[in-house]
Amino acid sequence: MDLPIDQLRFDSAGLIPAIIQDWKTEQVLMMAWMNREAVLRTIETNKTHFFSRSRNKLWLKGESSGHVQHVKSIRTDCDLDVLLVHVEQIGAACHEGYASCFFREHESSARDWKIVGQKMFDPETVYKK
After folding, report:
1. pTM, full prediction
2. What values do phi and psi take at 99, rounded to 5?
């Protein structure tokens, strides 16, 4: 018998994009990649796990910062090739200290990106850079 995860359509690198959204406010917090193991660990632990393409390794959201995500639900799109994960975010989602990774908004008049998000912590303090 197939597991529900076997129905997912991972790309040629074995990855699937995961959109992470606050379960109460519906604010999009981040987008990250998951491989099969990350999906399984997320399901098993109810905490989000991702695959880092730059570091080529699995990671738990919040392993350095303590800003974990408790999973409330996992959905997939009609093509089974994107995940939507509703979470309860503890702390901030963005490694730059913002509540959401989507803290910049394009301003066409200035032809630039304006910071519109709320900064919640100093990354240098949290990550000891």
Report:
1. 0.91
2. -60, -40
Cα–Cα distance measured from residue 12 to residue 6, given in angstroms and rounded to the nearest whole number: 15
Give the list of residues 6+ apart from residue 44 with CB closer than 8 angstroms, or none: none
Q: Please tell me the predicted confidence (pLDDT) of residue 1.
A: 47
Cα angle, residue 75 at apex, residues 71 and 76 outer, rounded to 5°: 140
Structure tokens at 113: 């990106």
Q: Are 113 and 103 in contact (CB under 8 A)?
A: no
Tokens describing residue 32 = 């990250």
- Amino acid letter for position 38: A
Q: State pLDDT tens for residues 63-116.
A: 999 999 999 999 999 999 999 999 999 999 999 999 999 999 998 777 789 999
Query: Nearest 5°: phi and psi at 121?
Result: -155, 165
CA 21 to each of CA 7, 25, 121, 128: distance values in angstroms, whole numbers, following the listed order: 22, 8, 20, 27
